[in-house]
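Problem 3 from the worked examples.
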Amino acid sequence: MREVPRTVGEDPGTPPPRREEVRRVLRLFRPHTRPLGLVGVLIALSAVAGVASPFLIREVVDVALPRGDLRLLAWLAVGLIGIVVATTALDVLQSLLTTRVGQAVMHGLRTALYSHLQRMSLGFFARTRTGEVQSRIANDIGALQTVVTSTGADLVQNLATVVVTVVAMLALDWRLALFSFVVLPFSVWLNRRVGRLRRRITAQRQRQLAEMSATVEETLSISGILLTRTTGRTPEVVERFTRQSDDVARLEVGSEMAGRWQWSLITLTMAAVPALTYLLGGWIRGTGTALSIGTLVALVTLQAQLFRPLGALLRIVVRLHASMALFTRVFEYLDTPVEVAERPGAVDLPRPRGHVRFAGVSFAYPGAGQDTLTGIDLDVPAGTSLAVVGTTGSGKTTLGYLLARLYDVDSGAVLLDGHDVRDLTARSLSDAVGVVTQETFLLHASVADNLRFAKPDATDEELRRAARAAQVDDVLSALPQGYDTVVGERGYRFSGGEKQRIALARTVLRDPPVLLLDEATSALDTRTERAMAAALAELSSGRTTVTIAHRLSTVRDADQIVVLDRGRVAEVGTHAELLARGGRYAGLVAADAARAEPLEQPAGS
């Protein structure tokens, strides 16, 4: 679904993360329980080793130094060094495991989103800007990189360190330990407020990044550059992008500075606690209560070990709050229902003959308010040709979309060899129906790779045979590297007619029993169109052909011609029959001839 752009200062009312969302994020890690369990063991060992140092320091201060026991002092020094070496090795191994798990989760999330989007209907992409879709995959999932790969492990590690340190402090001296904990409730409360603020700003930032990505996609493509240059709108486009970039920059600053003053207050409080602890320790010793200097030093050392992971823990919680906004955006796409889904138990069509029938078909685009097609009944026997004509907006292209199942009918059925196309597997239907549209799309790859996109195992001879059938082999052979020539972005090194013929060759290569040509010869000149007509006549032999056209000269030899008017069948018959009736088709032919007549006047007349 397309989102309504929001202004920078607008509060979208982002709710706090729900438990179900958190559980859903945790489920992403479920396939990796074994390495995560090992990470947990490593974290526990590292936390225990970390709190051992203050106890060794206490022995140094209270025992080794007062007694002048150099042997004991040496062993304690070796122990302190060994703890550092052990914790470093454990941290490296833990980082390796968490990075592998995190990248596996990222890979699974990216591929799940991409494969889900690949199954979305044409209507979804008609409603959604391409840049918005790309932003979800690149910006949103990309921003989750740090969260997924390291934040989870950091959270557990710091939490374990805090718990073990608290236990150790209580074991040393419960009075000083409790005094050290007075900052905790205030820090947690303040952290929750900062987390909600960060999540709201993150959601706004990602929306603005999506807007900026959509602008880049639209204006930096070849089509966009041609449009802006030829309309003189380059300064306005640059100004719009500048505003969007400025909005993103201000949101980035807002995200970075959110809660910074609150954090400064927490940091100041944590820095003051050790000094106050020494003061309290001195007071306790002054009252005659037993408290060794080594215990006091060890406890203050543990305070540093407590406050450092505690501060990190609070920042991680804030980061997780912000990341939930990203997960929500990704899950929003994953939860978008697939409107044209393959049904359970869908069947293959092993040897399709190509018998096409539209049985009482009605269809309306979502939100259109009225049917685009109403009560369409047509029968196209296998191996015959049907031409669909009519004025703009009569539903011609929509009829082709329904045959290829780019949309599903609202009522009635589209049948292929007696099977409802909704009951066929997607692969079976795409193998049976080859589609060539007016708006051809070529990949930024070689000509051969573009053709093999339809049939990856095609031989070079098969490529040339398909190209000859589409009347484009001579053009391709004359290229600098022949069929290995890179076509360029969207095939802009070719003319419109050449691109359409390459698209025809790509479809012909699959040898589908049903050929759907949607304005497929609209960009061809008269000479090439005649050659194409001959080629298509040969290609259509034994093949069901459905042609959607405005230029009526291309459909006169069709076995059936159907005239659509406002989504309904107005007339059906052959070219001669419909002309004899003098109805809508005859009027279209007369209008077509009137448009073509000025172009056919001899030079100088």
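Problem 4, a separate protein:
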Amino acid sequence: MKEKRRTWDLPFYSFNDDEKIKEWKKYALEVVAKLANGNVGLIADTGTGKTIMAFLVAEALGVRTLFVTPTVILTNQHASLYRNVVGDEATILHGKKTKRDWTRGKMVIATPHVFEVDYKKGFIIPELFDLLIVDEMHKARGKYPYIFVANKFLRAFDKHILCLSASPGASQGAIKEIEGTFGIRNWVTADIQKPITRHYLIKANLDHVPELREATAYFKSEYAQVLIKLQNIFDSVNKKVIPSVNRENVFLTQEQNNLLDKEINNLPKPKFYAAKSFFACQYKLAYLFHVLMTEGYSSFIKQIEEGLLKDSSKAAKAILSSRGLNRIYQQIKRLDLCSHPKEKELLKLLEKLNTENKSCLVFVASKKLAIDLSERFNNLGFRSDTLFGKSGKSIKEQLDVIERFRNKDITIIFATSVVEEGLSLPEIGAVIHYNQPMSEISSLQRNGRTGRFFQGEVYFLIADIPYENALYYATRHKLRKMREIFYDQPKLPSGGTQQTSFSKKEKSKKKKKGLEGQLTISWPEDDFL
């Protein structure tokens, strides 16, 4: 007798789409086949089912699997999804669990941080698993623990790695770095169609506010003076380091700041200390200016009162001693906090979405700004809450916000970057970038929070100043390049890793483990799904 087809009860909707299931199966089988020839990178747009495809791969292979994901809340959400997809319980391990058993269960979902901690204590070895699945592989940069996990699995014999991401980067260099980190030999691009998402750019004009015009003139002048003092120090050692000042945008880019910092570190000690102080001063001035222009009056006031006034550094004291800054601070304090041009544009946008009965996710730069905006807009009659990670909200509190959003008790979430990566949210009508994403991957992940099941909208709300304009257009250009690499070319980059065939000995060992025999796997129509 035929078994009844399973209807998937995913976290926020009941899924029974035969075409989507076929696509997931197809790409999962392609991954299974390519794993026989080396580790695999799976690329798919945010919200198209990367995690589901990864679970299907693990289930098809029938091997013990370690699934690493960046945050604690994601371990819980992925485990819930695994239960609904596979019908089995996953073992969840993270830093908030003091007793961790790495030997329990066929699927272990953990943060990379606890893997590193427990490995160093001798509590875990890669030999406990046959397959490693890495969520959000693009995070493998610098000292992030994904590097440690990958290194241990690459050293262990006959282990396989499947890496997931919407994109590992917008350049061949970034992709090759990821390939080297995880030993990726093959790429699979799951080109799964999503509903159309429309993008809109809204520019807030700051020129009509006299206080902001005066503040702009002050910060540009003060900043230029600090750069001149820095160059004077380098003149004494016959070095031209500071670039020519652009009247429209005097502020150094992050790349220029990094280069300048390296040059300062090479100075002899007496000059080094003076240069470091000026360097800190220009950095703080630029940050204060950008907070005022891109975040709002309240953030600017708090940055002075809770930041600079509590900062005992020489640079902070020099900035606070300025009569010009004190004058601007007093002027801004007298303004209506909601009257900042960017906040006024946000208010108009939220009112529009509210009349259209659309929920929205507003991305901001910091926890303080999220709380501040949520409180002010709630006072105006909106129903909002906040989402941010680390010590700001417990897992229970975060899940409670999501549940309230799903039940439409709230219709707006002000969130930091914690929501960018994989967090399962109910269908969202619109994403608003109140503060701009700092990278193309960040933009891609934020935008993917909407348009998962229905047409979505993405709004980029920027202050019409050189910094935000440059950031917006640079990110958009990198997104296009990223799409060209992974979707618009017939073949993915090989990264220079050589495609080699397995020896008879290796094939024999793989066959014993069941991997070779799974390459032609197909699921009965009325069985697995």
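Solution to problem 4. DSSP finds 18 helices and 15 strands in the chain. The longest helix spans residues 210-235.
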